[in-house]
Amino acid sequence: MTITLIILGDSNMVKLDEKMKEDFSKIKIFPFATASKDGVPNVVPIGFCKLMDDETIWVADNYFDKTLSNLQENPKASIFVWNTETSGCYQIKGDVEIKSSGEDYNRMYNMVKEMGDKYPAKHLVEMKITNVYECKSGPEAGKKLL
């Protein structure tokens, strides 16, 4: 496995490798976890979760309530990548930015509306990947991969 670390100022971002990207593409619904500033956890199923490049994930806010509030208080999130078709099991963590206008937001909005007009696409949650951890059981469970 190739590990690439990119350092931009004080922020560390990592890039998913080819195997991780392939596994990501096999997921239909992603568990998306956040926490309030007080550390109260929240997890929701996400249907619009797109890997935009090796280090950036887009999540559409269609119906966020506690999730949006958590992200406004604590702009960090985690996504779980696993199903019976994946070769790996990963917990992806990252820093998020909430966007409700601009070119990226408009692009996400159009992508969501192609899925159906019933989805409001209120915000774009752009997640920059900072860490990836092993989720499979066994001696490597919880090991930092990236």
Automatic annotation (TrEMBL):
Q: Where is the Pyridoxamine 5'-phosphate oxidase N-terminal domain?
A: 16-134
What is the top-level taxon of the source organism?
Answer: Archaea
Cleaved signal peptide residues: none
Q: What is this protein called?
A: Pyridoxamine 5'-phosphate oxidase-related FMN-binding protein
Tell me what organism the protein belongs to: Methanohalobium evestigatum (strain ATCC BAA-1072 / DSM 3721 / NBRC 107634 / OCM 161 / Z-7303)
